[in-house]
Every structure is written in C-alpha cells, then in structure tokens.
C-alpha cells in the first residue's frame, strides 16, 4: 500500500486525510502543534517519523510562512523536493465520497499523477474544484426529492419534536442513550415508551395542563430514578400515591429522569415546566448529586456550583472531540478513580446553591418549592 505523510492537521490536513484514506493510501499525520501525550492513535507521528519511506509528503498548511517552515523541515530531513507538495484546499468532505472513484481511480495511478504535478498541485486543485462543483450540482438537483422524502418521513411521526424524530429515524441506536434537547438531556426508556418526546413515565398533555381550571393545582415532581421508579407499574409510584392522597383538585406529574442531579432538574423545569406555572414544585435530590459529584470536574463543582451527570455531557462531548482522555466516570470500579480535588463539602455547597436558585425560580413563577432529600423520600 502506498504511503502518504500529511504535515498539518487543521481543516486542510483533516480534509486531505479523509480523501487519501478513501482513495486507498496508508496515511500518517505530523503536526507540530499536536501533543502526542494526548493520544495513543499511531496515525500521529513526531518529527523523527519524517525519515520513514513515504511515497509523497503533503504540506497541508494555509499560512504561507508556516507552510514554508514545514517544507524546510522536510527538505532538511533529506526528503526529495519532487515528493513534497503543497495543499491549500479543504473542500473534500466524507459526504462527497461517492464521487472519489470518478476523479481518483487507482492509488498507484493517482500517486503517479500527483508526483508529476507541480509543487503547488495545480492539477489536483483543479480536480477538487471540479469535484466540488459536481457535488453541488447533484445536491441542488436532489433538493426537491430530499424535501419530498423529508416531508414523507415527518408525516409518519406526528406530534414528535424534531429531536425525537431524529432519534426515531436513526437506523443504529446502540450508541444513543439520550436525546439532547437545547439545555437538557432526556434518557431513552425501553419500559416507558408511550411518550416518544421526553420518555416520562406517563405521557403528559402539556397544552391541556396549561389550560387546567383555576381551582386545579399542579404539583410538578422532579428527581432521579428513585422518583421515576422505571421498574414499577404507574399505580405503585410515589407520584401515584401522592395523586391519590391529594384528590381531583390536584394534578401530580412525574418529571423524574434517571441520573438527574438538582442542577439538571432545574434545567428541565426551565425548559418544559415553567410555562405550565405549577403551584407546587417538589425536588427529590441527593443520591445522584453525591454519586456523580466526586467524578465530575472540580472547576464546575467547586467554582460554578454545578453537579451534573458525566454520562450525559462528558461522554457526549468526548465523542464529538474524539479525545482519548479517560474520564473518571468511565475508568470502572477502581476506588481510586475519583476526583480527589472534590470534597463532600464542595458537593454539599453546590447542592445548597442550586436548591436556593431552584426555590427563587419557582417562587418567581408563582409556585412553592419543596425540596426532599432523596433517600428518605424513597424509604417513605
């Protein structure tokens, strides 16, 4: 397999890597600004790797001075000038992969063409421009059919939010444990599936609740799995018992989400429940806050008073960034795998801060706030 070195891993380098891999080259990446201590991926090499026997070397740096420095490093390492080429485009994206074979057929032939091209890769850049134009033409011609297809799919999911539709229409759901809404996350449930938007234990008619009679009070209950009790029939939940005790002049709703902290409860309240103007807001807090607090970020917990579930946010962002940094919460059952910079008092202070804020937000909306320490709520 022909070997390619990509020097520079900004937009240009990433684009060129995608293209070269698709064509069928073995690729290595060198970037003076990448700290190799942060990765175990052997695609990245340091300066010592320059002397490996690569068939072609691409300097994928837009800034002319930086590109010249990279060129000189390659030349000083004894790389023949004919093998060093400058790339100044980042037009290629993986969504254009269906066009690759039309423009770049067989790796050996492609490499021969590239080596024959001038150092600025004039012919290559003209090919990329032609490929991009063809892609846009195809995209334009497909727009009407895409719109028709989109409307057809959406019509089968009446009443679902766009985020729920994206989840429902995903073919592979094995890595999708949550739906990420603006400002809050909702865990997917395989037991309570009536509500396709938010997967609450019971589907809530938000419009009807908003139009409830003035003499009917709304009790909104927030908490984690101890309130949600996914595994129990609805009639055996805490909120069902409360509804039975309070009677018909009250509507008791269960907004419990597995893994929620007090901070996350408040974000959910702000997003979905504030417009309902509940008369009473009950927060069952405690267990998750302490369990997740010791494996969270010390800056967010201690300085910003945020307790949060790493499985919602840290995992998701790690996947987006493709970082290899091990998280405390994913190392396993090792007792040492905690953030020793966070003390119990730090978590307690964060909880107290957000309870006070939750109280202010609730009372500002005309409601009464009732915090309940989670374990006692469950025992009762």
TrEMBL record:
Domain of life: Bacteria
Family annotation (SUPFAM superfamilies): NAD(P)-binding Rossmann-fold domains, SGNH hydrolase
Annotated GO MF terms: hydrolase activity, acting on ester bonds
InterPro entries: NAD(P)-bd_dom_sf, SGNH_hydro_sf
Name this polypeptide is given: Uncharacterized protein
């Amino acid at each position: 397999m022909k070997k390619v070195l990509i020097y520079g891993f900004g937009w240009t380098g990433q684009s060129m890597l995608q293209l070269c891999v698709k064509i069928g080259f073995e690729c290595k990446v060198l970037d003076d600004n990448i700290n190799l201590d942060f990765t175990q991926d052997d695609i990245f090499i340091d300066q010592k790797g320059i002397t490996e026997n690569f068939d072609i070397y691409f300097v994928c740096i837009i800034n002319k001075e930086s590109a010249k420095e990279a060129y000189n490093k390659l030349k000083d390492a004894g790389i023949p000038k004919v093998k060093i080429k400058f790339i100044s485009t980042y037009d290629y994206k993986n969504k254009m992969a269906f066009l690759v074979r039309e423009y770049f057929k067989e790796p050996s032939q492609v490499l021969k063409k590239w080596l024959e091209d001038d150092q600025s890769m004039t012919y290559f850049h003209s090919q990329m421009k032609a490929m991009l134009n063809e892609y846009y033409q195809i995209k334009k011609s497909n727009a009407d059919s895409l719109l028709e297809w989109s409307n057809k799919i959406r019509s089968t999911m009446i009443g679902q939010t766009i985020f729920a539709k994206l989840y429902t229409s995903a073919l592979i759901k094995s890595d999708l444990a949550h739906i990420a809404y603006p400002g809050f996350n909702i865990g997917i449930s395989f037991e309570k599936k009536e509500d396709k938007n938010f997967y609450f234990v019971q589907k809530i008619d938000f419009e009807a609740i908003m139009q409830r009679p003035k003499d009917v009070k709304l009790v909104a209950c927030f908490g984690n799995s101890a309130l949600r009790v996914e595994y129990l029939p609805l009639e055996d939940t805490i909120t069902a018992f409360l509804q039975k005790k309070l009677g018909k002049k009250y509507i008791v709703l269960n907004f419990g989400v597995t893994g929620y902290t007090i901070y996350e409860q408040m974000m959910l309240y702000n997003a979905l429940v504030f417009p309902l103007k509940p008369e009473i807001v009950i927060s069952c807090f405690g267990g998750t806050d302490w369990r997740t607090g010791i494996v969270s970020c010390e800056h967010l917990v201690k300085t910003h008073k945020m307790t949060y579930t790493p499985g919602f946010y840290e995992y998701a962002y790690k996947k987006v960034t493709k970082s290899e940094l091990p998280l405390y919460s994913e190392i396993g059952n090792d007792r040492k795998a905690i953030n020793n910079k966070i003390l119990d008092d730090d978590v307690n202070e964060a909880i107290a801060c957000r309870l006070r804020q939750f109280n202010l937000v609730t009372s500002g909306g005309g409601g009464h706030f009732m915090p309940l320490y989670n374990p006692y709520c469950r025992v009762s």
